[in-house]
Amino acid sequence: MMQTDLSGSLNSLFKLTISILSFSIVTSCSAGEALVTLDPMTKYQVISGWEVTAEIAGEPKDRDKMPLYQDIVYDMAVYDVGINRVRLEVHSGIENDNNLWTEHFYGRIGYDEWKRTLYATVNDNDDPHVLNPQGFNFDELDFQIENAVLPLRKRLEKLGESLFVNLCYVAFTDQIKNGAYHHDDAEEYAEFVLATYLYMNEKYGFVPDTWEVILEPDLVEQWDGTTIGRAIVASAKRLESHGFTPKFVAPSVTDMSNAALFFDDIVKVEGAAQYLVEFSYHRYKGRNQGNLKAIVKRAKKYNIDTSMLEWWFGHGTDDVLHQDLKVGMNSAWQGRVLKGLFDIKFNGTNPPVVTMRDEIRFNQQYFRYVRAGAQRIGTKSSTHNFDPLAFINKDGSYVVVVNAASGGNMTVSGLPEGNYHVSYTTEHRSENSQEDILVKSDGILHTSIPSEGVLTVFAENTVSVP
Fold this sequence. Notes:
Layout (H helix, E strand, L loop, with lengths): L7 H14 L11 E14 L2 E5 L12 H16 L3 E7 L8 H6 L5 H7 L21 H20 L5 E7 L15 H19 L5 E3 L12 H17 L6 E8 H13 L7 E10 L3 H13 L3 E6 L7 H9 L3 E8 L4 E4 L7 E4 L1 H10 L7 E7 L4 E7 L5 E7 L3 E6 L4 E9 L3 E3 L4 E3 L4 E6 L3 E7 L7
Parallel strand pairs: 1-15, 2-3, 2-9, 3-4, 4-5, 5-6, 6-7, 7-8, 8-9
Antiparallel strand pairs: 1-12, 10-11, 12-13, 13-14, 14-20, 15-19, 16-17, 16-18, 16-20
Helix pairs in contact: 2-5, 6-7, 7-8, 8-9
């Protein structure tokens, strides 16, 4: 993002005004004042969570450094960034009589050797309706749960919230060099799903909130929309027979232009649509308004949520997030793995220096204040330079997030009476008002942002950090 710097006496005046008036009335960076109006009678999607993939260690060479940074990462992810949903991955190769993940993680075999069998499956037996627990190795799942899921859950519980767990099946079969693959059979896949649920329930006392059927099936030759639909139906029946409530996420394609095609084939399978709760997609290809609107159209028809669940490596900026929330009607969104939220520098210090990645500084203006269960409401802006989104959290508190293409003053109208704060992030600075801003019965709050960035207006009780 480009920043318009204030210089000389104007810069000094701006800083002085902030300290005195605490964001209420701030010097303008552009002529005029924008009006942002809230419309609580117009209601849109409900937020289920801000997701990360449960990766905390990275490569095995990094595991010895984990104790130095992991608690800092957990704290910052929950309390500073606002993460409250996690993608917990299970590789198809968990059903195997070899446990090569452990061998790789502890450095006893190299990555190339592990990768050749990572997604290869060895059937537990010849009957998909007779589960042999000894045919599954869950060491990798244990590591993710114990070193990502449980620490995040513990911290969210301190906030009176819960962690949403989305369990995602991964099978990039083109990487298989040694071994076979059999999970494209719906009943065998259903056995795998059930084995995972039973294991988690017995060992940890909880099961996933949702099951993401397969990661990026448009990269897996054995899978298409019909295969996904059949897997959903078979797995749902198996889970229900054991007292679990099945909820599935799909198709999670890498190319947005494939999303509608896969979805249409999924819902053609009798019974599949009733268990589908999220229409998911990734943003690596096919990123255009037409594909996004096609996703929303189908989600509305079947009364399910939409979710953008992967565009890593710094591509998931606040502009993308804003579009997915506003146009894509997303209820969940993921732009990074857990460790990837932060830049971790080992400069001879203990602990290391942990800072938010650049785009996370902007995204946390949404994540931290808009909580799970929040409903988006209508907004209007008098200028295209200030593009607002507004939400009502479950506790009734209002949050307004403004994606600002330039600096300037704005008036927010339609807020309930109460005390508010303002936070903003621009290219080189982040500010958070320390004093209360009282909104009276007229529902009006005056605020400003010095340059292009993201500004958030939030009620006093929105954020509570232990």
